## 1
Amino acid sequence: MKIYCYSGLGADRRAFRYLDLTPHELVHIDWIDHLKNETLEQYAVRMMSVISVDEPFALMGLSFGGMIAVEVSKHIKPEKLIVISSIVCKDEMPAKYKLVKVLGLHKMIPVWFFKHPTRLTNYFFGAKTERAKKLLTNILQSTDYAFLKWAIGSMLNWKNTQKPNCVRIHGTDDHILPIDNLPTHHRIQGGGHFMIVQKADQLSEIITQAIAQ
């Protein structure tokens, strides 16, 4: 089965490179340029144009990509919807981000935070191993910052209130989207926001089993 996947904010297909989902085919959908004043919901509709619905498929989203996958699943029906390190509706948005939205602080995100990753960056993303730190640095330094700022704004203004039927995987040490009281099927002990790299073997097993059920 083809598993169409969406990566997270500032991330690309490299975030999925350590997953082994044999015998399934992982198909990464690259981000496209956003349109002026486009909402997350509108953007998601354009992001599903490459998906073939003529055969069974699954959707998988990481972080911001999880929100996109949720929106896409409203229009086309996957066999499975898998959400990793993400939320599925606006009510799950952490209170601190709601405050950021009200104060408009997301419009003042410093580029240096991503251009020159620090220990603080690694902490928030949960990058602990040298492999994870190096990959995170490479990904962030090649980020399109205009897209990043738009994506953060669209995420903060997400209107979805529906909780889809999906498989949720979340790390207990996620500092960007804390697990707190999120309803999660699979709690990854010690997993941070970048656990898709550091705990790829564990996630691969969970995802493969979920697809088989």
## 2
Amino acid sequence: MKNEHISYWSQSAEVIKVAPLDKSIQTEILVIGAGMAGILNAYELNRRGHKVTVVDAHELAQLTSAHTTAKLTLQHFTPYQMLLKNIGEAGAKMYHESQLDGIEIYRQLIEKYNIQCDYELMSNYIVSNGDKEKFIEDEYKAHQTIGIHSELHKGDQGLPFPTSIGLEIKEQAQFNPVKFMTQMIEICIEEGVTFYQSTPVKYIEGNIAYTDQHEITFDHVVMASQYPVQTDGERRYALQAERAYIITASGYDTFKYGMFQYMDDPMMSIRHFHTQNGEALILAGGNHLTGAANDPKASYEALENQARKYFNAKDITGRWSAQDLNTPDTVPYIGKYYKRDNVWVISGFNKFGMLFSAVSSHIISDLLEGKDNKYEAILDPERDHGLKANIMSKANKSVQLVKGEILSLNEFETVNGKTKDAVIYNDNGSLKGVINTTASREVVPFCTYCDSLLKYNNAEESWDCPSDGSRFDQFGEVLHGPAVEKLK
């Protein structure tokens, strides 16, 4: 398959290349991360008159923002019935209102700058063929409690497979995120924002961000790097990394125009998108915690089978994956970092970061300027939620358990003539890992961020950390943080 694992979005637009940082600099506001959140925060801060510098560990407009299904909808994986329980009616209403604001921010930017990004208004549906009928009915009741304008439909929902119920929210949207980000980067540069790629920030101490060779002195720093950077020696937030898989297909049975989430097993996220050859299909699913699946490749295979079974798809044209971070209460962290009045956090989007990226740009800009923002309380990174300590405790226990297993080197036998896709083996008392390709190299299979034993991901030919979500390619280079150091 041509360009396997590269998202269609990344293939559809040429993102501007910029140089890495080559000297120590000073800036008023440093934004770490040039995905959707970083770009939109840089834009809004610059629009308000601030001097902004953006750095990214990789190329601009890549990673999760370039691997999303790119739905602009207020109906998330976290159902509103759960939000009512977790954060109460007032909090759920604020959550909903923030998503309406996010949709409006995109609409205004696209209209103001005439951004060509395949932006389309359409309805979003969650659907079932009976197994999740009560869930959808309960979600509709939650919508009514909160004041969400939605419609409950019984009967067939216009998909090429049986459905019996659907919950529709009108005037949602979909778009091509890389086309949008590419044009927003160009707008930012024209307005005076400076970008550097291939510039990972290792840690922050005081008002200085440290890269491999240089220092960036700042008045404020906005961490939009998916996983917050270690600051003043602390790694503070409870975040759980999750993988999701996406395929594209052509030659499929047509269906009602819209965005869909099929809630029965197997769960599927469904949408159309535009190519030079016409419309195509996106299916997403197969989610699992990073480093937790024994056979990640099976997620792609399952989606391909679903495309053929449910949509009669003739050709599978693409496959890629994404990584998301989840918070204990399924509400993002957007706001001031612990103990610091000039460090700002944007993280934990729980699989729906497009709208929160837009909303965060206004929240952070307001708070940084000393203004109130109505969403501050529900998104506060330091909010008190009972699940946080529990998850952090479980994460710590998991790390210790893995470390304990690593010490039992006798469990790993010396391997000669390796035949598996990858293997971790005992090399005279030291663990070594190798992916069985001609190009890969032998590595020490311990995460460089938390020291946990890594697990091989056969879908992406990567080493994945089950404790913090860091990922490394077959050469040991960092694919996803929080790790910043490559494998030895």
## 3
Amino acid sequence: MAAIQSGVRLYLVDYGLISAEYFYQLGLTDFGNFGAIRFSTPLDLRQLLKIGGEQMQVIEPESAELDWEEVIANVYDQLLSRKDMLMEYFTIEISEQGELLTMPLMVKGYMPSMAKLPNFLLRLGPHVDWNDEKGCFATLLRELASFYVPEALPAPSASGSSDEEAVAKRRDELHRVIENVLFPAFKARLVATQGLLRGTLEIANLKGLYRVFERC
């Protein structure tokens, strides 16, 4: 959550919800014209999908009953067969050898969490409507927007471990990006929708407070 001011009003907003809507809208307006995040070392697509499957089994234990080798093979084949379309419209470049070479760069100065990459790629199988062109673009943009939403980090602890130091460093970086990159981008380009009201709470109205103090 984050606090923002609009005129004399102060709001508490779900920046994750706002981010998802912003990146979806950005995907629509910049469709087919994204920048590129190019990996210095190509990433093995099949291995990424395998990691995504392992993550999914932790998140959803009931999914352990699935034949994950078959699921991964199906998603891999689906992505490889659509690699030209993925590159042309989404700057997701996959080589003939099944290596992931690039991902779309949607906002300069902001790098999405690569820890979310395996799950993102895995979801492109069952959560994208590959049978309808319009539906395909819409559902894939939703998945891309979800990938770009800042990751949730654990609350600070007093352990002082090296892992905690790394998380604290990432948390500070994320706070900087949210304040100095994402929120200015929201202000410049986000078109507010009714759905965003679910993640918005007015917590102060200075005009109303002035009237209260005037009576004191």
